[in-house]
Give the backbone structure.
Amino acid sequence: MTTVATLAAYVALAVTAGLIGWLYGRRGWGKRPATTRAHEPETHLPGGYYAGLDSLINEHPDRAVEIFTRLLEVDQDTVETHFALGSLYRRRGEVDRAIHIHQNILARPNLAVEHHQHALWALAQDYLRAGVLDRSEKILQQLSEMPSHRTAALLALLRIYELENDWTQAVAVHRDLPADIAAERAGALAHYHCELAAAAHRQNRHIDARRYLRLARGLKRRCARANLMRAELAAHRGAHDLAARLLLRVLDEDWHLLLEVLPRFIASARRSRPELHIESLRARVGRLRGERSADLAQALLMIDDVPEGPLSDIVHDYIAATPDLVEIARISDRPLDQRRAARAVLRLAARGKRYQCGTCGFASQSLFWQCPGCKGWDSMKPVWMIGR
């Protein structure tokens, strides 16, 4: 456990110990000693309470938790303390104990409705943390019918369906979200349809794939991923001129997809009208601020495919204007050798990682539309563009 987590655990246990002591005093549990004087405080605490305190004071929190859990019977006065203990177990990674506590709460007769729903929600979180997705899903579906937990349960179900790549179910659940939350998550819904389009494409259901992409574009303005996939479909049927134009549109919508677009663009441009399309790309870079030219040069070096002409000139100018690469230009007068050396330097600097999440820092060689670390959509960028 981290220092902060350890401190939080001790605070939670101290609060639990205090609450147990208060409950024992409030209910008058135990026997009042006959020799107690009127001005002396009454003590009604059992020996187990002091054993728990001793374990807590002597920094044995696991033992303290066990003792305090045994001392408390689940009823309307102590149920919140059980919830606190269950949450503490889950945060500590002891999910089996958390599940046991929350199942024990649910088994109590005459449990208040709000406590019953709270216990169901906690148990769903326990199963989700444990990776038992089917049990968590079943409970969350039940909670989604309860107004008090409906929205939270639907969002948790979306998390499960994303983990399972069950995009059809994810789309269905998304439709049940409140309008304001659904609007905020329109980008995620567009990705769900793109995932469905990708699956349809793999199964050669191209009409379905194009239909899903139309839905994605209707949900998210400037949906670069949908246009990237449209370009792939166009190239697949031999419409390379259309594919090249769509790929240029992708760069207009999301410049961070440069590494994904360039190999496809160069391949389609070569099969259609290379001079026209490459000049269009060069003109787009020229209209943008100077760093875009450097981005294009680095991406061309990373993909191992620099056609001669305007794009080759962009790479040569980048090498000559970059202090760390100037020495490379002096080693050889041959542009091809200079590009090979610059490529090696860039790959060494990237340490094999081309993409990094701008939110959590997760890095990978390949692009993930949804970051495996923080589960955010569209957060992965080429490593040299992070921070812009």
Observations:
- Residues 26-59 have pLDDT under 50 and may be disordered.
